[in-house]
């Protein structure tokens, strides 16, 4: 566990103060486990997803993208095993009707909520959210909000292969919202009911021996370690946890959880699983469709096996903030990787009451805007502006001053070193794009 027990509170407070994350529906008293991403939070979240897509879809030849529906035919969830097995064992206090995960209360003790001792038996509680399609609400119209993106990749496997023929191994990647009616709440973005996942289902030929699937598993394990550096998650705080037999999900022959040292304990960040041919076989059986793949060279037909690396967007967001948050003297800095920072550059006029300075700064700001996410700030004094940009992780602040009017140079202040250098306006856009490209390249 981290020594800094207050770190989570500090990050939550910064998130609200600066517009990263707010409690959801706050003016109505909120809704448990729901959080809204504010202006800079939405940018950071989008940058995380864009870097993921760029890294695993655009920069590879063996992965294609997908965007499937959140509400699917309910048979999908019968086939996947979620209707039968996606549940938590719960126990209810008969006095106050609060429900708890049965592994998280001591039934020899009174209810932590009402302090009476009247426990029900343990019952399984399905975590999928139900809703209805059409006007009638009955069993025939019941549908579920998807609890993982992965089933889209399996259900569309046949369409993807026929529309975009590829040889195995082939990954199908998807980013999207999923819903889980989680009972345990708290810990900010760690356990949400509405969350986002970035998942790859990596289809491989039927392994002739363990080595054949293990080498793909190993490849994705290494990729996940590279990802931590790419996005600035402190890899010293990441640990692999091999999930033992009997504790893995019903579809998995091997699972590694990547755990992170959050201030509230060491807990899951991401997962990597060998799902075998479980899902495609089940969908073939339940849909009655042929989901085999035909090898274009040998003509052999078979159901592919699957390695699944999975990343939660919200836990990524949280672990990046926890890794980037630094207090240095009297300033608080988010040392975000430049490619993740909500704004790459802030532009200031030295003072706001000199029209020619303001005009020059404004022209510069507007000229940078089509090239980079850039923000304007003319509030307070320069020191305050630096502090507020440091807190949202803006890598560079540009000040237009009196010298600018004479020689068209500006000061560029570096967030991490606080060093300033003079750069000509002409060179500015290449200065930033080169620095950002270098920081992406050096991590990739
Ligand atoms: N398709 C496999 C799958 O869904 P999972 O371990 O249940 O596996 C994958 O979820 C990832 O989604 C987790 O590693 C975590 O990053 C994220 N995740 C799962 N439940 C979450 C929750 N309630 N709140 C926030 N993130 C969650």
By secondary-structure content and strand pairing, the structural class works out as alpha+beta
Strand residues, percent: 25-35%
Question: Would you identify the regions where 5 or more consecutive residues have pLDDT less than 50?
Answer: none
Q: Helical segment tally?
A: 13
**What is the β-strand count?**
23
Tell the overall outline: globular
Notable traits:
single chain; 27% strand; alpha+beta; 5-stranded mixed β-sheet; binds glycyl-adenosine-5'-phosphate; 444 residues; 7-stranded mixed β-sheet; globular
What is this entry, summarized?
The chain is α+β, with helices and mostly antiparallel strands and 444 residues long. It contains 13 helices and 23 strands.
Task: Describe the structure in your own words.
The chain has 444 residues and is α+β, with helices and mostly antiparallel strands. The two termini are 29 Å apart. Glycyl-adenosine-5'-phosphate binds next to β10, β13, β16 and α9.
